[in-house]
Design brief:
The protein is of the alpha+beta class. It has a single domain, classed as Beta-lactamase (3-Layer(aba) Sandwich). About 40% of the residues lie in helices and about 15% in strands. It has a six-stranded antiparallel β-sheet with strand order 5-4-3-13-12-11, with helices on both faces. A three-stranded antiparallel β-sheet has the order 8-9-10, covered by helices on one side. Strands 1-2 form a two-stranded antiparallel sheet. A hairpin with a 2-residue loop joins strand 11 and strand 12. The relative contact order is 0.16.
Length: about 400
Amino acid sequence: MKLKKKVFYSLILFSALLNSCSSKNTIDSYIGFDISKESIDYYLNQKMEDLDIPGISIAFINNGKVVYHTTKGFSNKQKQLPVTNKTIFEAASLSKPLFTYFVMKYVEEGKLDLDKPLFQYLPYPDIENDDRYKKITARMVLSHRSGFPNWRSDYKENKLFIQFEPGTTYFYSGEGYQYLAKVLKHIENTDWNGLELKFQEKVAQPIGMKHTVFIQDTYAKENKAAPYDENGQWIKEKNDPQRLLRQQFVAPASAHSESIDFSKWLIALMNKKGLKTATYNEMFKPHSLVEKMEYFDLNYTLGFFNPDIPFTNLYIGGGNNYGFTSFFTIDTNKKWGFVLFTNSEYGEKLGQDLSYYLLTGPNKTKLYLILGFILILLIILIRDATKFIIRKITKRKT
């Protein structure tokens, strides 16, 4: 193990020396090689064409700063409206980690205890027939161990139920997050619009997120991209099963944003701003084992997927609403990452492929010669972790 670490850190030092001559026209790959912005542009253009993605907003973060931001394609193909810096997208399940951060504000204020049963704050009539729900805590909800299904509407009975003893295992659940949102609303003695105002007060405004909302405001409605299905067809509102979701405060799925605004929050996470260090430690540590894989464990923290890969500190999120998909990956130690939003069904696929591209860079021969077997293994591990996370998220649709 000691030899492995020595080899790894020697390679990192060599990579750093190579990067000492980097230019402002490049961004860093995950392992430190320069990739030109022209190469990134070409790659994104090709992937958008291959995946039939109408529009994209993307920001790259190096050393805790946005080093490259671009928008491409159309926010509305029918009207030939381009994606601009103002275009707003649905964040889908990227809402979950953002909402988790919001929840941790209440924990720090002493208004919410992560381990106090939620029914003691607010009984839940939708599941009162099953006393097991009285064991569900905020920690269980945020780490997907509530026992609730993802959405009750996924089942023909359309009723909330508990499928296992709360706290005993992992199952991805939007229902749990929404119950917790109801608890926050009750704590504040307000309605959903009031909870939106609290989110703005506690999270968005301090970080400088000017156009990130859970309930669409006038700006979001006027600048929102049109959604497109898996065949690239415009999803008309009357054919949209999630149309009500798009208009309400839905903690696990209704956030609206764009890449520059969202990157401000990701950078806050990297710099541990807005919350105490102990709170960040609680939020980032593994709470649930999603799956034990051959070379690593895939964990879920409070709000984030976290592949337990040596020499990395990766946190990953993906979102999939009908016609809007999104993705981010960050390494909080390296202060590196990217976030993208699309008005298509293939943004998570793009995020997965882009993660691999940013690991290897356009010059793979150079990479293999320098890094050899050890870093190729690292690339494979992260690639496989990202693919697996995407499969997990896509299966459950927010």
